[in-house]
Amino acid sequence: DSGVTQTPKHLITATGQRVTLRCSPRSGDLSVYWYQQSLDQGLQFLIQYYNGEERAKGNILERFSAQQFPDLHSELNLSSLELGDSALYFCASSPYRGEHSYNEQFFGPGTRLTVL
Amino acid sequence: GESVGLHLPTLSVQEGDNSIINCAYSNSASDYFIWYKQESGKGPQFIIDIRSNMDKRQGQRVTVLLNKTVKHLSLQIAATQPGDSAVYFCAEWADKLIFGTGTRLQVFP
Known about the structure:
The structure holds 2 protein chains of 2 kinds. By secondary structure, chain A is mainly β. Chain A is built from no helices and 11 strands. In chain A, strands 2, 4, 5, 6, 9, 10 and 11 form a 7-stranded mixed β-sheet that branches. A 4-stranded antiparallel β-sheet of chain A has the order 1-3-8-7, with no helix packed on it. Chain B has no helices and 10 strands. In chain B, a hairpin with a 6-residue loop joins β3 (32-38) and β4. The A-B interface holds A 2, 4, 33, 37-40, 42-45, 48, 56, 58, 88, 90, 92, 100, 102, 104-110 and B 3-6, 31-32, 34, 36, 41-46, 49, 89, 91, 93, 95-102.
């Protein structure tokens, strides 16, 4: 158990809908990262937050957004869902020792999103 | 219960044998290289990392080798066990984690 929790575990929805995925980082970790793992793209970095502020962006679509709250939990919002958004979405947290420094990341169990 | 169902390269080994999983990386400026293990239905789990100024690092039953000349990374698992069966990903750190495509390790008794 990494100490990172994600809810829900599974989510089934229809095209055009909007969903929110939730992540609670390990106790004491200030940084949260979101990843998408799909059949054809593998594991891809989406976005990072540190202590409530966006820190880095990866291959995140404009239809997707995220935020980190004062209690450090994070939410990933996916809107106008398409079939191709079906994937596993992972959250990871790290203690974050510096903006460009490598930080070991601890991954949650993921949310499996199915868009029908 | 597969992690993603990707058509991944597969390495099949017998229990007790040593396993070697290889990875090619792309960015010569990457600072760190990391190996993750992903079991079915779970998130990636950190195994071992190596800084770019090193060429070898050992952990418990695992060794990572880094060859910067050819941008190659390998993970060696000694005395492979059934519990080692998983998908293994290499990742490189260059301000963000960039993951490789993964290799599926199957261990047979």
